Amino acid sequence: MRMINVYQDRVFRWVMMKIRGTMPTDAALGPLKSLDIGVCPMDKLPAGMKPLPGYDKPGHENYGHYNFNDGTVMYFIPRPAETSPMWDKAFINDGETKCGLFIDKYPSVGIGTGKIG
Question: pLDDT of the chain along its 117 residues, tens only?
């Protein structure tokens, strides 16, 4: 597991605000509004990652959720089609643009843990 960068941390914080219903209502947020839990393409799943039952059913409690082989439950944040240069950096790992991020659903040590998909 690798630590997420500052941009990925911002995505994590953004999604947590969305999940908790504490999102800013500012209409100027633009593409950031599209960050949400989604489904990872099966050919992009990291080794050791398996989908949970209902992962592909919108509205299901496990929608976009996966289980890593160490027992960690993670959710997938797809890279939005429209983003900004700052947000693009959250989806780059080792110089390669990724299709999304996996973030711990139950982080044990606050913000800062995650996997790149």
Answer: 444 565 666 676 666 666 666 655 554 455 555 667 899 999 999 899 999 999 999 989 899 999 998 888 888 988 877 666 666 777 877 888 888 888 888 766 444 444 454
Cβ proximity of 13 and 35 under 8 Å = no
* Spatial contact of 90 and 11, defined as CB atoms under 8 Å apart: yes
**Residue spans per domain, the chain:** 2-21+28-116
CB burial string 31-54: b at 16+ within 10 A, e below = ebeebebbbbeeeeeeeebebbee
